[in-house]
Amino acid sequence: MPTSARTRSLLTWLPATILVVVIGLIVLATFAVQGSWWAEDRPAASTDQKASDGSSMLTDAGFDYVNVEGIVRVRIGDGALPAADLGMPTDGDKSAEFRRPVRAVMAGGSDVYVVDDVAALTAVTQSGALASVTLALDNPGTWSDAVNTVRALAPTYGWDSSQIDALDEGLAEYNRGDSAEPFIATVGPSVGGAAVTATLTFYPGSGATPVTLIFAPAS
């Protein structure tokens, strides 16, 4: 069937019209993103993102703010807020994997600990209070890397050097067996405003050894 002049005219401007509509939608989306909370460099935290004492809310909203700001703040033990004020149940746990390594500022009593390159966090509550906060350090390396990391942190937390010196012998004894389960070693806990324990987990297949720091109320 022959195409009329009117039809040819419609076919000529129709693609251009679609393009204009698409561009318009992109512009609207761009304005929406620019005006959204997570696109701001330093957005103000809302009440469901930061607690009344400045601590991070241990909720999805709170961790969203941590991802933007790059800092997670938690107080444990003396002076800490109740679990409910942090958005957590009386007995339960909450975990988060951050989009990029963040800094953790941990307070216990009159002591403040700063931990850099934190990849993930797990908080546990018992009887309405924070019972522990576990920080997973980023980029797990070899066993030697993990031991060196713990050794470098020892002066900060006051860990007993004899515990660190015994780590290699513990791994050697493990290797003399035939277990396929990971080898787990701990150093600590420290004495101070918070009880801090380092955990090294050696995976025999790959040799990877992630390090975690567990903060608990001082005894």
From TrEMBL:
Transmembrane portions of the chain: 12-33
KW Transmembrane (keyword) present: yes
Keyword Transmembrane helix applies: yes
Keywords: Membrane, Transmembrane, Transmembrane helix
Record-given protein name: Uncharacterized protein
Upper taxonomic lineage: Bacteria, Bacillati, Actinomycetota, Actinomycetes, Micrococcales
